Amino acid sequence: MLVPSNARPRYEHLLDLQPRLLRDSEESKHNRMMLRGARGIITSGIARNYVDEVLAGHDEDSRLHIGRYPLPVGLIRAFVDHCDEILIIEEGYPFIERHLCGLLGIPGKSIRGKLTGDLPRTGELTPDWVARALGRPYVGAQLPLSDLAGRPPQLCRGCPHADSFKAMVEAATGLGDAYMFSDIGCYALGVAPPFRAVHTCVDMGASISMAHGAAQTGAHPVLCTIGDSTFAHSGMTALLGAAYANANMTVIILDNSTVGMTGAQDTLLSGEQLLAAVRGLGVDPEHVFAIEPFPRNHEANVELIRREINHRGLSVIVPQRPCIHTKRKGVGRAATLTCGVSCRGTAVNT
Ligand code: SF4
After folding, report:
1. Residue 342 predicted with pLDDT over 70
2. Which domains does the chain have, with CATH numbers?
3. For ligand 1, is residue 325 a contact (CB within 6 Å)?
4. ipTM of the assembly?
5. Candidates 323, 326, 328, 331: which one to mutate for ligand 1, based on the most atoms within 8 Å of Cβ?
6. Which end of the chain is more exposed for a tag (fewer CB within 10 A), N or C?
7. Is pLDDT above 90 for 138?
8. Could you say which DSSP state residue 269 is in?
9. What is the pLDDT of residue 140?
């Protein structure tokens, strides 16, 4: 248990371990060095495969592949001593290159990589980029993609979130510059036209806490959208805080009865259980509503959402309608959605 009296000696222990970890790394079979010509190539991860593919058996370069950390300083020093010119090829951030060059580089050695612009800092590392950096001919797979129209991801046709977003955006129209926060799930695609109902999205559960922060500054209207499974995963603590403060905001929990984005797994909270959890967290039951986001209910839903936006305090509105894939497969907890919604399909206060 890392109480301070344990944490201090454990950190000393961690520091004491470093020389042994470094020794293990120097001797590891995952850090492989071959000294040949004066040009050296240092790789990590998939970059080794790309270099193998591009060089296609031309083995005149020296090679060092780093597959185990901490960085094997002894191996790297021997490699740098042997080579005049070094190309560092790694995915993502130029981690090895930055460590090797430090602030001032190594006098007398040409070290190239992402920091020198020989490889791109952004985008995917590909064999084509590696070939260019190595000055080798390489013809990758030629796919006729350039003629295809761009197809940005969007909500499925018939997705219940579309009707929720339409109602929400229309309800907020004319009430000033609305702040709309959202969360991790299919509904993050509400950022795209025609909805433009997501202004920011950070991490699981942050929609409610960001909205709460905005409401505390006096911003209005403040709305946030979060799915049922994300709410159960990490939105509940934020709602507890917002309920305690009776924050002036409208939380819309999109209950599609499943974890839609990752393939329709069961959700932890849906239907009446979700509504009970919302009330249990301290939200005033007078301002907890379940609605059915169908086109036939659009006007009524807009009216309800607008009324709750204008309520000076916290409201929670739960549009209940299963993801179309859950419905098709007959999986998930769609049956629970009938709870809390009137048989005429109009919104009911829960
Ligand atoms: S998977 Fe379901 S929730 Fe996700 S966009 Fe498609 S219909 Fe909507």
Report:
1. no
2. 29-134 (3.40.50.920), 160-349 (3.40.50.970)
3. yes
4. 0.99
5. 323
6. N
7. no
8. S
9. 73
